[in-house]
Design a protein that fits this description.
With 270 residues, this protein is of the alpha+beta class. It has a single domain (7-265), classed as Nuclear Transport Factor 2, Chain: A. It has helices at residues 6-42, 49-60, 66-74, 84-101, 164-176, 181-200, 205-209, 232-240; strands at residues 113-116, 120-122, 125-133, 138-147, 152-159, 162-163, 264-265. Strands 1, 2, 3, 4, 5, 6 and 7 form a seven-stranded antiparallel beta sheet that branches. The chain is globular.
């Protein structure tokens, strides 16, 4: 095996940490920028609520890879078995469901303050923890990012330690142990139609159930199928299964990149 020249080794040693630090700063700036822009829209009293939600989704979309999240949630066993048409429909339904479950609740945090921690690197991915501080509650939101061919993208979000991808994945896995994939699609279609109808009028019981309870706790995810519900085993699986994208970068276990950007917070509404 050929040995690298001393000059080449020196370049690698000097550029490696610098490149990691640059990536950390890029990730930090992307996440903070998107969150701050979304909060600015939500705090604008002149913009109607429905328009705010559309604007927030437009801000978030470029940074989030929901199609990849759909693939990871369904899992490596089910995904290869699907025809291209099935993959497209499942992805579309998954994306609509996640947006309805999470993006539609963002107006609840319009007056919140957000604190950003330095991104933590693991191989080619980053884990960035934020703290959303409201009047009556404090939530931990962690963003998981990978480098796509275009830029850094969020492929998963943790709310109070519960992963969106793993939570939905555990529910799909439980459903498919008894039902077929086509039955799962039908349930998702029904849920999508119900969400469209309820969005035009009064909130449905399912939407109310998905809102924060009296103590201010926000559920990590809504069930993809309503009739069967989610068993305690599925909920435990969502917490204990490994990251489907190749390992969960734990803040406690993984070393931080050198010279990470300092923790910052978004300005609170005046």
């Amino acid at each position: 095996m050929k040995k690298l020249p001393l000059a080449a080794l020196t370049v690698l040693l000097l550029c490696g940490p610098s490149a990691a630090a640059d990536d950390a700063k890029t990730v930090f700036g992307l996440v903070q920028g998107v969150v701050d822009r979304a909060l600015a829209v939500l705090r604008d009293e002149k913009v109607p609520l429905d328009a705010k939600k559309e604007m927030v989704v437009d801000i978030i979309n470029p940074l989030v890879d929901l199609p990849l999240a759909a693939k990871l949630a369904l899992g490596p066993k089910q995904w290869p078995r699907l025809a291209e048409k099935q993959r497209r429909e499942f992805t579309d339904l998954f994306v609509d469901q996640v947006k309805a479950s999470y993006f539609e609740k963002m107006d609840q945090f319009s007056d919140a303050k957000v604190e950003f921690e330095a991104p933590v690197a693991k191989e080619d991915k980053f884990y960035m923890l934020t703290h959303v501080i409201g009047k009556d509650q404090r939530l931990k939101l962690a963003y998981k990012l990978y480098r796509s061919s275009e830029s850094w993208k969020i492929y998963d979000l943790e709310i109070e330690g519960v992963s969106i991808v793993k939570s939905y994945g555990a529910q799909y896995k439980e459903f498919l142990q008894k039902g077929t994939f086509e039955e799962l699609l039908e349930k998702m279609r029904e849920k999508a139609q119900s969400a469209k109808k309820s969005s035009k009028g009064k909130k449905s019981p399912e939407e109310k159930a998905g809102s924060p309870d009296a103590e201010g706790a926000t559920p990590a995810a809504q069930a993809p199928v309503e009739a069967e519900g989610v068993s305690p085993e599925a909920k435990d699986a969502a917490l204990n299964e490994p990251d489907p994208a190749g390992g969960d970068p734990s803040v406690k276990e993984q070393p931080q990149v050198r010279n990470p950007p300092p923790a910052k917070s978004s300005p609170q509404a005046e």
